[in-house]
Design a protein that fits this description.
With 264 residues, this protein is of the alpha/beta class. It has 11 helices and 7 strands. It has helices at residues 3-10, 30-35, 62-66, 82-93, 99-110, 128-134, 138-150, 172-179, 188-191, 207-218, 252-259, and strands at 73-79, 119-123, 153-154, 159-161, 183-185, 195-203, 223-231. A 5-stranded parallel sheet has the order 1-7-6-2-3. The longest helix has 13 residues, at 138-150. The chain is globular, with a radius of gyration of 18 Å.
Amino acid sequence: MPLRQLFDLVLPPRCPSCRVIVDGDDRFCSACYAALQFISAPLCACCGIPLVHDGGPDTLCGGCLAEPPNYATARAAFVYAGPARSVVLSFKHGDRQHLARLMAPHLLRASVGGITADSLVVPVPLHRWRLWERGFNQAALMATQLARLSGAKTCLDAMQRVKPSRKGPMDRAARRKNVAGAFRVRDKSVIAGRHILLIDDVMTSGATVAACARALKRAGATRVDVLTWARAVRVGDDVSGRNAGRSATHDSREADEKDSYGQG
């Protein structure tokens, strides 16, 4: 019996969400795959939030019209709910680091215009205390897998988090204040003149990626695009695409759960 078949017999591949046995690595079972809430058009051309009405590919949401972000685009593969949420929690807090391999193809699918060899893939950094506590930066693992899949270059230590985040529920203004001045670029010569693809696991208010993008633009980046595995969507927001008509199950408690671990 080939070694791979023997290994699968002893430790069969399992669904990354519910853990039932599946027929291959990095695959959801049929029930969990059906429960994934894909994010697709119509959505804001800038921040990628799902829109109720399709106003065309250049439509912006009210938030981006009122206060344009520092990044060019932000896209996420899934709504932060159901199986997509359970994958993130297992990834970060269950030490299932191999899940980064599952995430990379979905990040590539969600990217705007794909990823070129000239793109520099940069993860959102963790503060050193959080990195010591967890043992790894989940965004760095995702960035590494995405770079391998796309052929782009990556710089895992391009940014540094110099200020830890306050834990607990926060409104949008408090989240922005919480990450103000929290990030800096280690070496501007690495960033200057480059297209940066900023990677994180979940986007909630967008305060974290906006603060990172601000630091990257100040360091000379020509463009910053954001890619995340999942996106927090308020109840009542429309999520179109394969699961059109399904309401988002994410609520404010789950958004605060994300921020309670120092992200946003």
